[in-house]
Amino acid sequence: MYAFAVEAFGEPPALRELPVPEPGPGEVLIKVRAASVNPIDWKVAAGELARPGATFAFPLVLGFDVAGQVAAAGDGAPFEVGAEVFGMRRPATIAEHPYGSYAPYMTASIETAALAERPEDLGPVPAAALPMTGGTALALTRWLDPREGESLLVVGAAGGVGSYVVQLAASRGARVIAVAAGQDHDYVRGLGAAEVIDYRTADVAEAVRAGHPGGVDAALDLVDGRDLVAGRIAPLLRDGGRLASTLFAADPDAVAARGVRAVNFNYDATVSDMEELARLVTSGRLRVPETTTYPFSAMGEVYADSTAGHVRGKLTVTTEE
Questions:
Q1: Phi-psi sector, 316: left (phi>0), alpha (psi -120 to 50), beta
Q2: Helical H runs in 118-220?
Q3: Residue ranges in the chain whose pLDDT is less than 50
Q4: Which CATH number fits domain 2-130+288-318: 3.90.180.10, 3.10.450.50, 3.10.50.40, 3.40.630.30?
Q5: Residue 187 contacts by C-beta under 8 Å, 6 or more apart in sequence?
Q6: pLDDT at position 321, please?
Q7: pLDDT at 53
Q8: Pairing relationship of beta strands 28-37 and 314-318 according to DSSP bridges
Q9: CA nearest to 169, candidates 194, 152, 156
Q10: Global pTM?
């Protein structure tokens, strides 16, 4: 099979011919139907997630989100052959388990992946677009806890996580202020944003202050580094507000004096989150963001698009042998 993998950290990933992995005890072999692309992929390739002292097995196949069919199962595996599953590989296990979803086949266990059965009315491509960004959005929304009538500022609202958070917060009755490029304004409004700010043409901080002079109740920054979060986003919060960053850019100690709670968020996937996402989508209460799908043979192009940033919604690939 051909898999999109790296031979060493810092080297560009490429399609490489590798043997089909065999499932061990407690593992399933998944015939991959679809996978989605996330920024964590290129961070893995660069070695940014490598723990000091950890020994990695190479080639390391990239890819976390997956939807596919169980093709084989080892003793004690959590699913039977033929089961349709979806979910995500656990980032903490990549050193010991180098089999990602950018391949026709991957192995997984309950230790290395959060997997759930895929409902019949949830197709493989939308299922593959759910796990990492949707699960992160679920957990972030729980922590930020936007309530009816409250204001939530989302910086990076048109991306994968942002697209889900906007919907989840709006469904709770919160007033979502979406920061996104101008061409994405109709898109984020369609997801439930009540206000939009074009970061390319407007001063985000000034625009927020003009509309919310008393400060916003909560803010989620999905794109900025520590200096911008500290200097431009955190001051927009009212005393007692909530702030979350997915790029470890928040400084909880710096805002504590104003009663602001801040968190640097790292998502730990669970099976229950996967099941909840499936229920939300199949019931119509949550929709999968705009998804652009490519054949697996174009994996290099998709990866380049992801590393360039400014992706609207999700990028997915459908795999083939």
A1: beta
A2: 124-128, 131-144, 160-171, 185-191, 204-211
A3: 321
A4: 3.90.180.10
A5: 158, 180, 290, 312, 313
A6: 47
A7: 72
A8: antiparallel
A9: 152
A10: 0.94
